[in-house]
Amino acid sequence: MEEKLYYQDPYLKSFSAKIMKEGLDHDGRRYVVLSQTAFYPTGGGQPSDTGKLNGIEVTEVEETEGEIRHYIRETLNGASLAEGMIDWVRRFDHMQQHSGQHILSAAFEQLFDHKTVSFHLGKDTLTIDLMAEQLSKEEAEEAEKLANELILENRPIECKWVSKGEVAQYQLRKELSVSEDIRLVIIPDFDYNGCGGTHPSSTGQVGLLKILGWEKQKKKVRVEFICGNRVLTQLGQKHAILRQLASLLNMPEQGMPEAVERLLDHRKELEKSLEETNDQLITYEAKELLMQKSYPAVCCCVYQDRSIQELQKLARKLVSLADDHVFLLAAENGSKLQFVFAKGREAEGDMKELAGKALPAIHGKGGGTELFAQGGGELRVPGEEFLSKVKKSLNHGTDEF
User: What CATH code would you report for 292-396?
Assistant: First the structure.
């Protein structure tokens, strides 16, 4: 472990090392292997460090095939020595989040025996999966309260290597996944856990912990939360949003929920009114069409940029007013052609069968009943030409399109 400087001192920001190897992996990504490194490689739910080697950006670090590979954007040009500089803001953030996860997981287990079965540290938030059927608001609040009390006590966080025989001295929170090179992360009288991640030297450096929410995941509950500086970041973002909304609503923050509820109710009323008005317009349109002189028994109408829902409403209104007519409606919507075929009960023809004949001509899909069918596909021919062929097929019983 001597070459893993991040275990010797997780606060180490820069270091020097010999370049042992530079090469390309199976995916053609360039990497460097060093004699020692302060860059933590991805593992145990914690993302890798990033930073620079000789000024060249290190984008990712992985431990594979017995070596720690530092992936770099460009070659080091045959250099024999490397000066490394890790991204300290990223490293310390990961230290805060990882230790916060240990604390929250221990809190849930001690209070409610909800064991943590998995952990993910994301860019903005982190999650733990609890072995629990459900999680109540009261349980989440109690676990969060205990976690923050532990943080404020500023207890030491100890990291130590032990042998397999020494493990029995500790009451571990979960079973170990390794049998050698065993590293324990210990918060005395609170949590004992096998872990290979980086951690601060005391709980106080975690800063603060806030649960953002949780959701059911089969037989588990996934809890989303943040720690440390992420709490301040999210608080700042949410405060900025609240101030903007307060200005837009002309309402203090405390009154915003009621203001939003009023807006939503008003929107529902407007939508209902608009729908009623649209139905009245469609009724008027249908009557106007039927008032035209010499209106054919098979009527064809083509529209531009009209939804299939409006075609359906218009078709239903038309057949309700003219029970002995057939109505063939189509709409050219961009590169798509959509249609509705409808007939009254006194008219002849099978609309489902007619649609089945027409759909291949536009590489489309659809269906319906004898009285009412709809579908859509590609605008391969103009709508008028398409309906003309449909009408011809209906009148003459042909399958040609």
Answer: 3.10.310.40
Structure tokens at 66: 């017995």
The CATH architecture of the domain made up of 92-235 is 2-Layer Sandwich (3.30)
CB distance 342 to 371 below 8 Å: yes
Supply the DSSP string of 254-319, one letter for each residue: GGHHHHHHHHHHHHHHHHHHHHHHHHHHHHHHHHHHHTSTT--SEEEEEEES--HHHHHHHHHHHH
Over residues 370-382, the pLDDT tens digits come to 999 999 999 999 9
For the chain, the distance separating the N- and C-terminal CA atoms, rounded to the nearest angstrom, is 76
By the 8 A CB rule, do 285 and 318 touch? Answer: no
Which residue shows structure tokens 């060249």? 56
The pLDDT of residue 174 is 83
Give the residue-averaged pLDDT of 58-77: 93
Delimit the domains of the chain by residue range: 5-86, 92-235, 292-396
Q: Which fold has domain 5-86?
A: Elongation Factor Tu (Ef-tu); domain 3 (2.40.30)
Q: What is the dihedral of CA 312, 318, 319, 324, to 10 degrees?
A: -140
Task: State the chain's mean pLDDT as an integer.
Answer: 92
CB atoms within 10 A of CB 202: 16
Six-digit token string for 198: 């980086």
Q: Is 16 exposed, middle or buried (0-12, 13-18, 19+ CB in 10 A)?
A: exposed
Residue 119 is inside which H or E element, if any? strand 116-121
pLDDT band at 173 (very low <50, low <70, confident <90, very high): confident
Distance separating alpha carbons of residues 187 and 270, to the nearest angstrom: 58
107-123 tens-digit pLDDT: 999 999 999 999 999 99
Give the pLDDT confidence of 130-170 residue by residue, as tens digits. Answer: 999 999 999 999 999 999 999 999 999 999 999 888 888 88
